[in-house]
Amino acid sequence: MQATQPQLNMNFIGYEAVTGQGDSFQSFAPARNEALTDEFANVSAEQANQAVDKAAAAFSAYAKLHPAQRADFLDAIAAEIEALGDDLIERAVLESGLPTGRISGERGRTMGQLRMFATLLREGSWVDARINPALPDRQPLPRPDLRRMLVPLGPVVVFGASNFPLAFSVAGGDTASALAAGCPVIFKAHPSHPGTSSLVGQAIVEAAQKTGMPDGVFSLLHADNDVAQGLVAHPAVRAVGFTGSRRGGLALLRVAQERPEPIPVYAEMSAVNPVVIMPGAIQENAVKVAEGLAASVVLGVGQFCTNPGLVFLLDSPQTDSFLETVAVKIRASAPATMLNAGICQSYYKGVQQIRVLPGIHVLAEGETEASHDRTEGRATVLTTTAPLFLSNPDLSHEIFGPSSLVVVCQTEAELADCVQSLEGQLTATLFATPDELHQSSVDWIELLQTKAGRVLFGGYPTGVEVCEAMTHGGPFPATTDSRTTSVGTGAILRFVRPVTYQSFPDALLPLALQNANPLGIWRNVDGKMTK
Amino acid sequence: MQATQPQLNMNFIGYEAVTGQGDSFQSFAPARNEALTDEFANVSAEQANQAVDKAAAAFSAYAKLHPAQRADFLDAIAAEIEALGDDLIERAVLESGLPTGRISGERGRTMGQLRMFATLLREGSWVDARINPALPDRQPLPRPDLRRMLVPLGPVVVFGASNFPLAFSVAGGDTASALAAGCPVIFKAHPSHPGTSSLVGQAIVEAAQKTGMPDGVFSLLHADNDVAQGLVAHPAVRAVGFTGSRRGGLALLRVAQERPEPIPVYAEMSAVNPVVIMPGAIQENAVKVAEGLAASVVLGVGQFCTNPGLVFLLDSPQTDSFLETVAVKIRASAPATMLNAGICQSYYKGVQQIRVLPGIHVLAEGETEASHDRTEGRATVLTTTAPLFLSNPDLSHEIFGPSSLVVVCQTEAELADCVQSLEGQLTATLFATPDELHQSSVDWIELLQTKAGRVLFGGYPTGVEVCEAMTHGGPFPATTDSRTTSVGTGAILRFVRPVTYQSFPDALLPLALQNANPLGIWRNVDGKMTK
C-alpha cells in the first residue's frame, strides 16, 4: 500500500487515512485568539475499535522483529519528522502559542528521544536477560535450563499532553518507548494541537511503511472523551500512557481498573515540585538562587509539570532581601500566551482563589498587564506562613501556570511538617550547604526522597534531561505508578513483562537468550554479568 | 530489649510479643481431622495499626542500612529457622497435613531463598544504578549530573499462603524480597498454620534483634479479614504481597485501589497451567510424557499453583494408548491429606460440578477410596472435546487439587482456539517436536507466551526453581501484575522505585552512586556497563 498524501486533518487507522465519523471541531490559535479554518473530525467508536483490532493483529509480527528493525523504524520516524521541516514548526507554534525557538528545541528533543531508543535497541541489553543453565546432576533434583527476558505487553493507548505538542505528544516519549518495547501504539491526539498531531502521525505512518512495519503498528485518532475511554476499555489494549490533568488521569485509571482484566495506566498528573531553601544556601549565593527561582517559575509561562509551585524558606536575616530579589525578577517578567484559553482561565482562577485568603500576601506579579485577547498568563508569587499553609490543604495543589507560593517557616520542625504534609511529587529540590545538613536534626534528603522521583541539590527542576539516569515520575498523585519513569531509557520498562523459557531447544529461543549470544548483549548467567 | 521466650501462640508487634485482643481460634490438624488445643487470638484493629506505625517508624533507619547489614539479617533469619529444628518441622506437618519430607524440603527452600537475597544484596548490582555525569560545556545547555537507583517503597503487608506453610508464608519469598529491598514487613499469618507462623515469626524477631535491626522491621499478626483489609488501607502501607484465592486477592486489590493513595498489590491468585501436547511428542516418548503428566497432576495432592489443570491433546492414532497410560498411573495414585477441610470440600465440589456435565468423561480416578476423616483428596482426570470446552467457560477455571481435564482436539485450529480462549496463566507447557512446530501454521510458542509468565518446552510446571531466571507470575488473573515475579531474585523489584539524584555532592549520594563505586557494583554510565 502506498503512503497517502499529507492531509492536515486526517485520522490514521493503521496505514489508512480516514475522515472521522464523529463530531468535527476546529483547531485554535491561542496567540491570535481565533479558531483556524481547518476542520477535524473525531473518529467513531467503531473506527477506534478498528484501530485497536489492527494493532492487535500487528502485535505478533511487530514483537517478533529483530531489534535492529524496530530501531530502524524509530530512526525513520525521526527522519520523517525532520523532513516535515518548517511546516511542522509553524503549525505547532500556531496551535500552542509557544515561541518558535521553544518548539524548535522540542522537535530536537523529540527526534533525540526516538534515536535514543533506537540506540538502546541496537545495544540490546535492556531486555534484562537472565540465564540459569541446566544442572542435570544436581542433588536431590536436577535443575532445568531456565532463561528469562522482557517481552512486550501488547497494544498501548497513548494520550497526548497539551503542554508539549511534540515531545509528550504523537511521537513523544510514551510513543517512542512503547514502540521500542515492541508494542503497537494507538495515539489519541490532544485537541489543542490537532494539526500538529496529524502531521506527526502522518510522519510515523510514512516511516512505518518505508521500514516495512506491519499495518496497525501505529494509529492516530482524534476522539472525544467517550471514545477515548472506550479505547482504554478495549480488551486487546494492554497498557495506557497519559500526561495531563489529575482528573483526566484518574478517570482513565478507573476505566482500566474496572475492566474484567485490569491493565496498567501510566498517568503523569500533577505536581507542585517543592523547593526547600535553607539559610546557608542563601547566605552563600542569595542573588543566584533568587533569580534562578524566578526564572524557573516563569519558564514556558509556567506550563511545565516540573514547575516549582511551592517554595519553603527557613526564615533568616536574609529572607527579606532574598524575596525582594525574587520580586524584582517577577515584576520584570513579561506576560506570555498560554497553551489554550481553558488553561489560561484555570490559571487565573486558581491564583485568585488563593490570593484572596487571609494570611496570603502578594509578593510580586508581572507589572505589564496581560492581554486577554492573546490568553496571556502573568506571573504571580505569593507568600504565607507555615501554620497557614498547614491549615489549608488547597494551598498545596497545583496551579498550572507561572505562579508560586513561598512558605516562610520559623523552625526546621515547621518546615519538616510542611514537607511531610505534601502528596507525591515529580521533583523535590533542596538548597542547603553540606554543613547545615550535617547539623540538622532532620534528614532532608531522605524526607524529600520519600516525596519525589527526582531530588535536586540546588538547581531548578524545570529542565528534564533525556538520559539513562532520569526519573520523571513519582509517588501518587504525581503519577499513578511511582515505580516508573516516562522520560529516559527507563520509560521502556513500563511496556514489558518478564517471560521465562524452560528447557527450550536453543534454536527455538529468542535471540537474546540463545547460547551463542548472537545479539552480543550483557546477560546475567547464574548471577554473573557476562557478554 | 531482650527477645521474648518462644511462645507458640503469640503475635509480634515489632519486638513485642502480644496476645491478640480479637477473637480467638484453634489450630487444626487435617491428617487427624481434629482441632489442636493451642489457642490463638487475632489482633484488634488498634493492634494492627500499632504494627504499621512501628513499621513506618522503622522504615527510615532500615532503608538506610548498608546492604551488607540487611544481608546479615536475612542470613540470621535462615539460621534461626534452622535452629528451630524438628519443632518447626513437626508443627508444620501437623498443621498442613503435608508429609515430613516435603516440609523438610520446603524449609530448605525457605532458607535458600533468604540466603539468595542476602547474596544478591552483597553483590549489590540489583539496584540498577545509572549515572550520567555532568556536561558543563554542552551546547546549547549544560547537562547536570544525574544519578539514579532503586530505593525501597516503604512498609509492605504480606499475606501467607495455605499451601506452602514455610516457603510462601512468614519467612517466604514475599517477606524475604521485601526485607531485602529495604521494606519493613507486616505479616498476616494464614489461619491454616498459626503455630508454624508464630514459630517462624519468633525466629525473624530473634534474628532482627541479634543483628540490630530497628524495632518494627517485622511484625507477625493473626488477624480476621476486616483487620487484614484495614492493614491494606492503612496510609503508611506502600505495597501488598498475597498468594491465595482469586476472591481473596481481588478483595485486597479493590481495597488498595480505593485508597486515597492507591498502592500496588502483588497477588498470585489462580491458574490452570495449560499443557499442549502435539502428536510428534507422543510418538517420540508416549510413556514418559503420560507418566510425567499423571505424576505432576497428583504431586502434593495437586495443591500447587502450577498444577497442570488443563491438557490440550491434538488427536492422533496414539491418543487412546497415551490416555490409558495416564489412566493407569492415576488409578494407582493413593489419596492423601489435603491442607484443610475447606480446601478438600472445595476440591470435591469443583470436580463434581464438572464431571456431571454432558460430554465430560471420567478417564480415571484413584482406585482407593479417600478417607474423609483425614480430609483426603483423590485424583481425578476427566476428558472432553474442544467444542464442549469452548462452549463452557467454567471448564477453564481452577479446581485446586489433584484433578485435570484433558481436551482432545481434532485440528490445530481447534486447539489454538482453546488456548486463545484462556485467561492469563502462571505457566504454559508445550510438548512438540521442533519439526512439527516448523510445519505448523500456528506459532505455538508465541501463543503460549502471550498467556503465561513461564513457557516450558516439555517437562512439567510443578517445580518452581528459585533462581535469577525464574518468572513466577503471569497475565491477569494468574496475578494482578504480569510485570512481576514472586519467586527468584526478580521478586525484589516489586518493592522498589527509581529515584534520581541531580547535582548532588558526592558525599551526600547513596553509596551505590558515589564516584568511587565503594560497593563495587555494575553501573550503567552513559549507557555503558562498568564496574
Automatic annotation (TrEMBL), chains A, B:
<dbReference type="Pfam" id="PF00171">
    <property type="entry name" value="Aldedh"/>
</dbReference>
<protein>
    <submittedName>
        <fullName>Aldehyde dehydrogenase (NADP(+))</fullName>
    </submittedName>
</protein>
<dbReference type="InterPro" id="IPR050740">
    <property type="entry name" value="Aldehyde_DH_Superfamily"/>
</dbReference>
<dbReference type="InterPro" id="IPR016162">
    <property type="entry name" value="Ald_DH_N"/>
</dbReference>
<dbReference type="InterPro" id="IPR016163">
    <property type="entry name" value="Ald_DH_C"/>
</dbReference>
<dbReference type="InterPro" id="IPR016161">
    <property type="entry name" value="Ald_DH/histidinol_DH"/>
</dbReference>
<dbReference type="InterPro" id="IPR044151">
    <property type="entry name" value="ALDH_KGSADH"/>
</dbReference>
<dbReference type="InterPro" id="IPR015590">
    <property type="entry name" value="Aldehyde_DH_dom"/>
</dbReference>
<feature type="domain" description="Aldehyde dehydrogenase">
    <location>
        <begin position="20"/>
        <end position="436"/>
    </location>
</feature>
<keyword id="KW-0560">Oxidoreductase</keyword>
